[in-house]
Amino acid sequence: MAPVRVILDGVVIIDNADAPQGGSFFGMGKHEVTTVVSLEAGQALSFVVEVRHTPTGAGLSGLTIGAMPPENENMMAEAINIAAACDVSIVVVGTNDDWESEGWDRDTIALPGDQDYLVSEVAKVSKRTIVIVNAGSPVSMPWLNDVEAVIYAWFPGQEFGDSLVDLLVGDVEPSGRLPVTLPRRLEDTPAFEHHPGRNGVAKYLEGRLIGYRWYDTVGREPMFPFGFGLGYAHVSILDASKSGTHGVDVAVHNESPRAGVQVVQVYAHRKDRAGLPSDEPEQKLVGYSRVKVAAHGTTMLHVDLDPDAYRTWDPETSAWAQWTGNIELRVGTSSRHIAHRIAITL
Questions:
Q1: Lowest-pLDDT range of 69-83, 86-100, 113-127, 232-246
Q2: Hey, what domains does the chain have and what are their CATH numbers?
């Protein structure tokens, strides 16, 4: 991207001509440059932004500009004092498009700023602390064992507030399940050892072991596993049996005095491992189904498995390779919470 100058009342306050390339605009922009200026309320100033456009290459220019107001130096202490006087403290933390984007890679999974400190200090003085994570990807939670509950809200949009209240007061049963694995540390993630590559070349050395497939295969303990999620009701799997090769029948029971939801998941594991490639996953998700169970009720559920559950794509032959031999179907509520195992032979 072309260099930019920001001129305030005739004075150049920002010039990013020497800023290194990368970060914004899918790596084609420049890293953020900031400055601090003193302003007086009611004062009129001229504000000019110059973009030095070079009509070569892609011929594109753009900029992102913003301002932060002065911070109240006592906000942290004020929040902690309020929490100490409350029965329940609800702390909303997270990120936004200043911190994560499809246009660049994060170099940390820690919450920005002093948010981890805020949660930790509130948890020390509050009777009960509930943390709402408003982020679009995994973040670390060093305070996890000090709080009573965590709701991972992701980026839910403009109805976030109304939906959150419905969940917190119990009008709606939390029924979401994690579509990704939440790691304990950035160093625990599959691509950490290989990213961003060497000499301008990024090699995907983890192969097919991405996401939960990597954690389950290498035995790395996540903070929360793929498919995990809790609700107010305790809904458990009582029993499971095969229904042909591509179906599983499951008995689900709700021990609670209110209706609950469970997402039953089925993973397939190849028991005959000899001769399999090094990136063959320990298990893979082959089916799942969401079920609502009445208070103190038991429900039978049928889970249809993926038609390609027992096939693997072979890039060398450009064709599907059919599994054969002994297969174990693992029925559970996450990739790490397996309640029943079913043996089949192909």
A1: 69-83
A2: 1-67 (no CATH), 75-172 (3.40.50.1700), 231-345 (2.60.40.10)
